[in-house]
Amino acid sequence: MLTFEKVEIxxxxxxxxxxFSIETxxxxxxxxxxxxxxxxxxxxxxxxVSVAGGHIRWQGRDIxxxxxxxxxxxxxxxxSNLFPHLTAAQNVGLGxxxxxxxxxxxxxxxxxxxxxxxxxxxxxxxxAALSGGQQSRIALARVLLRDKPLMVLDEPFAALGPALRAExxxxxxxxxxxxxLTVLMVTHDPKDARQLGGSTVLVADGLAHAPVPTGPFxxxxxxxxxxxxxx
Length: 231
Hints:
Elements: E1 2-11, E2 14-22, E3 27-31, H1 38-46, E4 53-58, E5 61-62, E6 73-76, H2 88-93, H3 104-116, H4 132-146, E7 150-154, H5 162-179, E8 182-186, H6 190-196, E9 199-204, E10 207-208, E11 212-213, H7 214-219, H8 223-229
Helix pairs in contact: 3-4, 4-5
């Protein structure tokens, strides 16, 4: 279980509070108005933003002050966070060793991860030679190699067209089911939240609300979200 226990995040005049738990294996969308703190919440979970008060726990273990590399999660960013001078295989290999000094078995694991995300034969290509969807697949392959129980997605497919975005979300769902991962995904698009399924955390007015089932929540959104979602 992932728990935000009376967490307070302060950045200048910005304030965000979170006090709820997420069951292991859950799929959770994080949605809310622009600037409300969706990415900030996940950055605090990932260790890139300090917590001013409270505790973040995973399976009862306090990870509030743990270094990002020591946390039980792998993160996929909007730009996929790929190094342009490295090949696809090397970018994936970073999930195992930052120095890329991989053993033969580790190189084989990289190939297996690329195969799993549909990039068999693309290992020698650099990001500039790949489409946006292929770059997103590389980022997911790297997550596979990191083998962490939490997958954190910060609008990873926002730049993709609707069909490709749906394809990538389906792949995320397949991987999460295969590995029993807990997924948290920031999105601006309610269609993405519906496809991911599970529950939704609303971030608005300085508060990250406890997760509620996504379907009913989006069918009858609260007033503070209605203007943002529109029709």
